[in-house]
């Protein structure tokens, strides 16, 4: 498996008097890019008393953007039942965990013309936690199944030059408005 980039600084064992506390320093020093979150460490006091600590860290490359997408690239974005001639939006949220800007230079959509990417590009995502949404819209022209592919082109993160998503939707007829009660008063 992948080595975990956490180490204890100083002694790994030391006495702590009852009711007292003592500092424990853990260093995060990743040697590779990646998400090193949800690493559980067991801290043992005695055989009967222990606790868990969860460590979270992201290894980045200095002088580089680090794109994190939700949903992840390679996913399918399903619009489900979508009323004909009525737009429905879905979003890709991009976060930049690197120390330089990340740029979405373009968003291309192929396949059905029911799918579009109505944003303005380039879209710059600030370093150190900047976040932006890319909108993908489906407007089916009629009843039926629709499929497409959206590709986001990125600069600033050499490890992730593109993100690709399969797009699916089912065009349906909008249900009629519910009939309501009306009152007519004559005087």
Shape field: elongated
Largest sheet: 5 strands, mixed
Helicity level = under 10%
Task: State the end-to-end CA separation.
Answer: 85 Å
Average pLDDT score: 88
What string, H for helix and E for strand, traces the elements in order? EEEEEEEEEEEEEEE
The class by helix and strand makeup works out as: mainly beta
Overall radius of gyration: 26 Å
Number of helices: 0
* Neighbour order of strands in the largest sheet: 8-15-14-10-12
Poorly predicted segments: none
- The percentage of residues in β strands lies in over 45%
How many E strands?
15
Could you characterize what this model shows?
It is a single chain. This protein has strands spanning 6-9, 25-28, 34-35, 39-44, 50-55, 58-59, 67-70, 76-83, 88-96, 102-111, 115-116, 123-125, 130-138, 144-155, 162-172. The chain is an all-beta fold and 187 residues long. It has a five-stranded mixed sheet, with no helix packed on it. The protein is elongated and about 85 Å long. The N and C termini lie far apart (85 Å). The model has no long low-confidence stretch (mean pLDDT 88).
Entry keywords:
187 residues, mainly beta, four-stranded antiparallel β-sheet, 15 strands, 49% strand
Question: Layout of SSEs?
Answer:
Layout: E1 6-9, E2 25-28, E3 34-35, E4 39-44, E5 50-55, E6 58-59, E7 67-70, E8 76-83, E9 88-96, E10 102-111, E11 115-116, E12 123-125, E13 130-138, E14 144-155, E15 162-172
Parallel strand pairs: 8-15
Antiparallel strand pairs: 1-2, 3-6, 4-5, 7-9, 9-13, 10-12, 10-14, 11-13, 14-15
